[in-house]
TrEMBL record, chain A:
InterPro entries listed in its UniProt record: PBP_domain, Phosphate_ABC_transporter
Protein name: Phosphate ABC transporter substrate-binding protein (PhoT family)
Pfam families: PBP_like_2 (PF12849)
Signal peptide: 1-20
Highest taxon of the lineage: Bacteria
Lineage: Bacteria, Pseudomonadati, Pseudomonadota, Alphaproteobacteria, Rhodobacterales
PBP domain mapped to chain residues: 18-310
Keyword terms, alphabetized: Signal
UniProtKB/TrEMBL annotation, chain B:
UniProt entry tagged with the keyword Lyase: no
Superkingdom in the source lineage: Bacteria
Protein name from the UniProt record: Phosphate transport system permease protein PstA
Main location: membrane
Record CDD domains: TM_PBP2
InterPro entries for the chain: DUF3333, MetI-like, MetI-like_sf, Phosphate_PstA
Biological process according to GO: phosphate ion transmembrane transport
Region (Disordered): 1-22
A single GO molecular function term of this UniProt record: phosphate transmembrane transporter activity
Cellular-component GO terms for this entry: plasma membrane
Amino acid sequence: MSFVKLTASAIAIAAVSATAASARDQVQVAGSSTVLPYASIVAEAFGENFDFPTPVVESGGSSAGLKRFCEGVGENTIDVANASRKIKDKEIAACAEAGVTDIIEVRIGYDGIVFASQLNGPAFTAFEPADIFNALAEKVLKDGEIVANPYTQWADFNADLPAADIMAFIPGTKHGTREVFEEKVLLAGCEATGAMEAMVASGMSEDDAEGACMAVRTDGKSVDIDGDYTETLASIDANPNGIGVFGLAFYENNTDKLKTATMSGVEATTESIASGDYPVSRPLYFYIKKAHIGVIPGLKEYAEFFISDDMAGPDGPLAEYGLVSDPELAATQAAVAAEETMQ
Amino acid sequence: MSDFTADNGPTNGTAKTSLFTQTARTKRRNAAETRFKVYGIGAIALGLFFLVALLFSIVANGIPAFKQTFVTIPVELTEAKLDKNGNRDPADLAKVTTFGYKPLVTSALIVALKEQGIEIPFAKEKDVEDILSSSVAAQVRDTVLANPDLIGQTVDFRLLASSRVDGYFKGRVTRESLVRDKNLDAEHLDVADAMVDAGLMKTSFNPAFIFGSDASESRPEQAGIGVSMIGSFFMMIVVLFLALPIGVAASIYLEEFAPQNKWTDLIEVNISNLAAVPSIVFGILGLAVFIQFAHLPQSAPLVGGLVLTLMTLPTIIISTRASLKAVPPSIRDAALGVGASKMQSVFHHVLPLAMPGILTGTIIGLAQALGETAPLLLIGMVGFIASNMPDGITAGFLSPNSAMPAQIYEWAKRADPAYYERAWGGIIILLVFLMTMNIIAVILRRRFERRW
């Protein structure tokens, strides 16, 4: 029965070597696919310039990353979670329950969210949050009444927009981008059109009205994209009337296929986002387990390198790729150097 | 037969016809047969058409990934910048980061352009550096650190051009498409054209695509599939050394020794069911059992191999049992008849005869495992991972790595269109592996299989 012996010894060898080599020597990062490009650029430069191996950066989304981050402390849990939104209280509680108590929050910069369509498609050049709300919300205000969204063409509610069928590809609910879209576009549009007021007047509580404002129509005119921006791009490619929600960096890499629309009259550029004029932007973060600093070699160096002026500064490679540099970077640098944890 | 008598029989009383003239009914039957043949040929033609279209698009999209545009320029390695103390101490040399090397390369490019009489059409001469990949500083730095004696000399470097310049020579980027692109201007392409004329820039075969490691999103020109190929290799080793012995032992027991009762029936049904389980389920299982329970390292090819072993086992068991069944009972009877024990008859006679079938099944199972991405998603093998070449066999099994299909998936997701091209190129390499494995399986079957 030589193969039984072989199998047994193979498993034994695997088990022994696994325990022998469990002292991990590279930083492990997981989380938001929006932060992934930036993290990979930093990780690569980090591997080139330091005596540590290149950190491993996995994708999977902000929520999945934070979930894994909160699994516990130890070498076979990740050290850093990337997130395109702030960590939630619920997640902090889950972390604490698993023993992850000291978390360092690092804001790396800002990311703009743009509304783009086919370069040669209908002239979607200027949107207001109200337009997006009227096109995509489940219930809108029409002739002073709250009705199920009756619009089929953009020109139905705003004569300045092209008479093209409404077709939008928005990030699915597992994306951090979706939250920003709901809060900064749908909710803003809801208030601007007066639908919010009408809902409250009709007897809804404030919270319910907010929820109703952020509900997206389900008749197929708005499609949730659970994959990445490449999937949204493919959908837009196949759909001349389609409007897609993209990150600024992704758009800037695909300007030969896409054009963006201004939002409230402001064009999305790194400058307009940094100054706060462009309304739809959000901060990007990563979270570090303080307990891993000093245990996993290179972790603190990686975090400091990430937010150094060389990388995340206004002229660094991250800004070149599309990150909007944080004006308060110096404060973040000091906080990381002092290992300040969240309260 | 009754049709025949009814239609053509002489007792029928109808007009006598020769057997050679076709009645309407025979014609209908023949027509139906012809139609069926046409359907069959049509189905094959359609299948072939899709295959050819697929292969054509893969090759057409992927071939450019094997070529890359390189810039060859002399770079002066100024001592004042790279080694201020002049003592060639490695620790001091390492303090100069890639950010310190970048201006050195940029000014070398400007000098080289001026020497060739190529005009730099930018207000800031420094802007011309966008022609070069952002990997060049690291390349020069690595060379200097490996060989500090070069400091003070002027050395010829073969550097990567940036992905958009490279795309221009491959027809992916045009001057029109750059109008709204902030990464590169049309003027850069003018400079690039002049550099080609002057012999400074050349597009040639790029072995780094096949043997290199993954690169970050900002430099697709540097990315290669080599490290993830090694990841796949180590996973296949794990699969081979676990799935083959376990699978063969299980099938020999079930086929030759196990009693036929409801327990073995139940096991059999479950093995067949396992073969039909979606592969992502094995990924979830692997995450729960190997990583969360057994605390094996994340993203490691060992865990990937274990998960794929679970997935491959049913395939191997089913094909092994089929080939054991195909060995005629007379062989077993003869062996038992001359006094061999049950085990001797199996290991000396049945197993050798079934071996070609077992190996074929194993290779097909391995090929299937090689192309699998879904289970790897859950155990952390997809992302920016395949960046360090493992430095030994243990590291090969345990340090984080990706696999070829996972790398292709990752590239296809990235924003820069140059990565899309590399994804197609990766598919070509993966297909070459899969075809080789399948051809080996066919050859084994042809050469060694015996029929009774």
